[in-house]
Specification:
The strands form four sheets. This protein has a seven-stranded mixed beta sheet with strand order 4-3-11-12-13-10-14. Helix 3 crosses helix 6. The protein has 393 residues and is of the alpha+beta class. It is globular, with a radius of gyration of 23 Å. The relative contact order is 0.17. A hairpin with a 2-residue loop joins strand 6 and strand 7. The protein has one domain. It holds the Pfam family Amino_oxidase.
């Protein structure tokens, strides 16, 4: 499930409209729970949030009295209002030649957002989007989170009908696609760019020269196959995680009483509300999506899942952001050039030697799908290729 929204994913939405990709605006329920520090078991939800606050008042968690529930709602409302107001009124400290800029950790401290709210609500919800640890999220540039909050404020969220595979089918239609090939090297040979790859079946090594090469891969892969960017790419952090499709319902925190009547009504609805469990410990968060197809999809699990009930595992590489890596990315893609690099790397910007970079991390913002589209549009413009969804406007 890859959700997108108005306000932030503007170019992605334009592309979907141009391609005729259908999308819908589903409703989500987010039970927030924690893992016990004593026995490692998942505790019942302490709060049940709804997308765009469509469920008013919020569903009361079991074991939570009415007075406690009302006080908790008031506390969250005040904290959320304060954070939202700060996003629009308090600018993060910008990067300068002598300072890499303010991190999210520093920004939250400066606006004095209560630590309990940060640890229990803010970090679990936002890290379910960024799919990284809480510490890694706090190291993000503050402007990333602030800009994301501004642009998604009171905006509807969408998901593609039929899944992202429908988008992949439309994009790859009538294209020459070679599967089972591992690229091992990209190098400049005169005015050409040579790509070397290994065929997974035959194990044969092949090379071919091209006029231009676009690398839409993560920074660690760029550094591994393209020597001129090896050192720079090592300064852009990535982490490894996985998404697990399974049927282990014991991995879901017990909230049957809270959601029982709600779930029964949702199943009878034409457009049923989906449930996404947000479960965290002191350092990380996992998201468990109760898929309409009666399976569970856990992203970046932090608690054990019964191996006998696992249907599929997919390894994922997630590109992270820091003020330092933001400065590097902006330098490569035309930002402030005042950061000191080695001379060979200092001269490299996107398109040098007819080698181009694209991907979710190749722009100044949260590492999400909009970055993929924006960076691809940038490459297209540099190569004088028309972007059809911009022409039709």
């Amino acid at each position: 499930m890859r959700a997108f929204d108005d306000g932030f994913h503007n170019n992605l939405k334009l592309m979907y409209d141009h391609l005729g990709v259908k999308y819908t605006s589903p409703k989500f329920i987010y039970p927030l729970s924690t893992i016990s520090t004593t026995d490692g078991k998942k505790l019942p939800p302490h709060f049940i949030h709804s997308s765009s606050n469509h469920q008013v008042p919020p569903i009361r968690p079991e074991g939570c009295g009415y007075v406690e529930w009302i006080l908790r709602i008031l506390y969250l409302a005040v904290c959320y209002f304060w954070f939202t107001a700060c996003c629009f009124l308090v600018e993060p400290n910008p990067a300068t030649p002598s300072d890499e800029g303010e991190s999210l950790r520093q920004y939250l401290g400066r606006i004095r957002l209560p630590q309990y709210f940060v640890n229990t609500y803010f970090l679990p919800l936002l890290s379910s989007v960024t799919t990284c640890s809480h510490s890694e999220l706090l190291d993000f540039p503050a402007i990333d989170a602030v800009d994301y909050a501004r642009r998604t404020y009171r905006q509807p969220h969408y998901t593609v009908v039929g899944g992202v595979q429908n988008v992949q089918t439309k994009i790859s239609n009538a294209q020459s696609v070679r599967l089972g090939a591992i690229v091992t090297q990209v190098e400049n040979v005169g005015s050409k760019v040579q790509v070397t790859w290994t065929d997974l079946k035959s194990k044969e090594v092949h090379s071919k020269q091209f006029d231009h090469v676009v690398m839409a891969v993560t920074p660690n892969v760029v550094g591994a196959i393209y020597e001129p960017l090896r050192k720079l790419m090592s300064s852009i952090p990535v982490n490894q995680g996985e998404a697990v499709v399974h049927r282990d319902r014991s991995s879901i925190p017990d909230c049957s009483q809270s959601l029982g009547r709600f779930a029964a009504a949702a199943r009878q609805s034409v457009d049923p509300t989906q449930i996404l469990h947000i479960c965290s410990n002191s350092s990380a968060t996992e998201a468990i999506h109760e898929h309409p197809c009666s399976v569970l999809v856990t992203s970046f699990p932090i608690a054990p899942i019964d191996p006998a009930k696992v249907i599929h595992r997919a390894r994922l590489t997630r590109v992270l952001r820091t003020p330092q890596s933001r400065k590097i990315v902006n330098r490569i893609f035309g930002g402030n050039p005042q950061h000191a690099y080695q001379e060979k790397e200092k001269s490299w910007s996107n398109g040098t030697g007819n080698v181009w970079l694209a991907g979710a991390w190749c722009w100044d913002g949260m590492v999400l799908l909009e970055g993929c589209v924006v960076s691809a549009m940038r490459v297209a413009a540099s190569l004088d290729v028309e972007v059809p969804w911009l022409i039709s406007q």
